[in-house]
Amino acid sequence: MRRLAVIAAILLSAAPALALDLPTRKAGLWEIKMEFQGRSSLPMQTMKQCTDAASDKFMTYNFGGAAQRDCSKQDMKNTGGTITIDSVCKFGAATSVSHAVVSGDFNSAYTVDVVSTHQGGPPAPGAAPGRETHMTIAAKWVGPCAAGQKPGDIVMSNGMTMNVLDIQKAAGAPPKR
């Protein structure tokens, strides 16, 4: 469960860079690898996510919605299929300045490189306060979702499965879609 909390915190720290209107991923099973530089205690994380248009939109709204409210700057440029996002966001006492580059396509494979600096408040998981961190997300479409999977299912490398739509329902808030 602690590992899940760390991954959720990491995704939230990347949310300012990912919150804007990105294309919807192809429906099916995506393998996602997150690698961290500058965060000493976090090894590479691998997960598989079953997605469809509705669950993909849900992730954007729920991880990105808070970021959009809390960001004084969110600039996105799409140049020749490469998307660059620069953001400045405040979460409580912490300010996060992020630069992200998204390349590839959302039908077969894409990469997101995020460089962030956090000031004030608690440091990002595994990072020293004020130190620049770098996260790379490499995602590839591996085929249809496995038998028994439903959109929103995320399978962690340790075999633990969660569904982002079910987590939202359990929290008592209606999912934004």
In terms of topology, how is this protein built?
Blueprint: H1 2-18, E1 28-37, E2 45-51, H2 53-70, E3 71-79, E4 82-91, E5 94-104, E6 109-119, E7 132-143, E8 153-156, E9 161-163, H3 164-170
Question: Can you put this structure into words, describing what you see?
Answer:
By secondary structure, the chain is α+β, with helices and mostly antiparallel strands. The chain has one domain. Strand 3 and strand 4 form a beta hairpin.
- Global mean pLDDT: 78
| Largest beta-sheet characterization | 9 strands, antiparallel
Tally of distinct domains: 1
Query: Termini distance?
Result: 26 Å
Give the helix proportion (percent range): 10-25%
Widest beta sheet: strand line-up: 3-4-5-6-7-1-2-8-9
Listing every helix as H and every strand as E from the N terminus to the C terminus, the arrangement reads HEEHEEEEEEEH
**How many strand elements?**
9
Which percent range describes the beta-strand content? 35-45%
The stretches of 5 or more residues where confidence is low (pLDDT under 50) are 1-19
Separate helix tally: 3
Structural class: alpha+beta
Shape: globular
Radius of gyration, rounded? 16 Å
What is this structure, in a nutshell?
24% of the residues lie in helices and 44% in strands. It has 177 residues and is of the alpha+beta class. The longest helix is centred in the middle third of the chain and has 18 residues, at 53-70.
Summary tags:
177 residues; alpha+beta; 44% strand; disordered N terminus; globular
